[in-house]
Design brief:
Layout: E1 6-9, E2 30-33, H1 46-52, H2 62-67
Antiparallel strand pairs: 1-2
Length: about 70
């Protein structure tokens, strides 16, 4: 049902061009659908995500936000 559809979009790791390898830095994520509000981010980048101040330390916990 399109009225209850929710989507979670995120990469599995960060790979900065400066080091050209995977690093353990936080990654951006997007939750879209009913019940989610815009947080002010305009681009899907690590820098933009950091500027929101939203950080989920334990990645598996993001699923709770998707299904709550």
């Amino acid at each position: 049902n399109k009225d209850t559809l929710r989507v979670l979009l995120l990469p599995d790791h960060s790979t900065p061009i400066s080091v050209q390898t995977h690093v353990g830095e936080p990654v951006p994520f997007m939750l879209w659908g009913q019940g989610f509000k815009a947080n002010g981010a305009h681009r899907f980048t690590e820098a933009e995500a950091k500027s929101t101040g939203i950080l989920i330390e334990e990645g598996y916990k993001i699923m709770g936000r998707l299904i709550e």
